[in-house]
Amino acid sequence: MANGITMMCLVQTRSMASLNKVYLIGMPGAGKSTFGVELATSLGLPFIDLDQKIESEEGKTIKEIFKTKGEEYFRAIESQLLFEITSVTDSFVMSTGGGTPCFHQGIEIMLQKGVVIYLEVPTNVLKERLEKTDLSERPKFKNKVDVYEQLDDLFKQRQKIYKKADIVIQESALDCLDVIRKI
User: Fold this and answer.
1) How far is residue 92's CA from residue 95's CA, in Å, rounded to a whole number?
2) Residues 81, 54 contacting (CB under 8 angstroms)
3) Exposure of 94 by Cβ count < 10 A (0-12 exposed, 13-18 middle, 19+ buried)?
4) Partners of 49 in the beta sheet?
5) What does each C-alpha distance from 100 to 25, 57, 145, 175, 181 come to in angstroms?
6) What is the pLDDT of residue 101?
């Protein structure tokens, strides 16, 4: 982010595609789906939740897919749907899964085709949010006891990829819609 500007959110200065295709990335519990609906409404674009699309296509929950077919299969389906939706849909705001940008060149596809927004939330806030949910539905988290350690490990693995985003919105600034509208 050396060339970025700071306004409660960081904006890369690379030439960005139009805001017709917006991808939201970030850790599990970052609020991608919640913020995505608000952003889509604000921009007048349809909202797509990639995880919901995967579940619809497969007829199973993500947890069931992980359990019966494994993460490798899930990541292949996730990548295929990301590519298909990106190729055939003219405009949208898409909430991706936490790992979507990290597998099968996901981040590169998103950066080539649209604008990528990283919702950066501190792991202690993520932990609080996730502890209030049913962790058994999240295949990357085994139990509430180790949530912080699991989040920290995932964060360390993914942070470098997430930081490639065009826009980084820090947790305290999810009201950056005005900044996004001006881009």
Assistant:
1) 10
2) yes
3) buried
4) 95
5) 8, 17, 26, 24, 25
6) 97
Q: What strand order describes the sheet that includes 21-25?
A: 5-6, 9-11, 167-170, 115-120, 21-25, 92-95, 47-49
What value does the mean pLDDT of the chain take?
Answer: 81
CA angle in degrees (0–180, nearest 5) for 136-139-143: 50
Task: Output the six-digit token pair for 135.
Answer: 């962790």
Measured at the CA of 151, the angle between CA 148 and CA 153, to 5 degrees, comes to: 110
The residue among 183 and 130 whose pLDDT is bigger is: 130
| Cβ atoms 20, 43 nearer than 8 A | no
Q: Cα–Cα distance between 170 and 73 in angstroms, integer?
A: 32
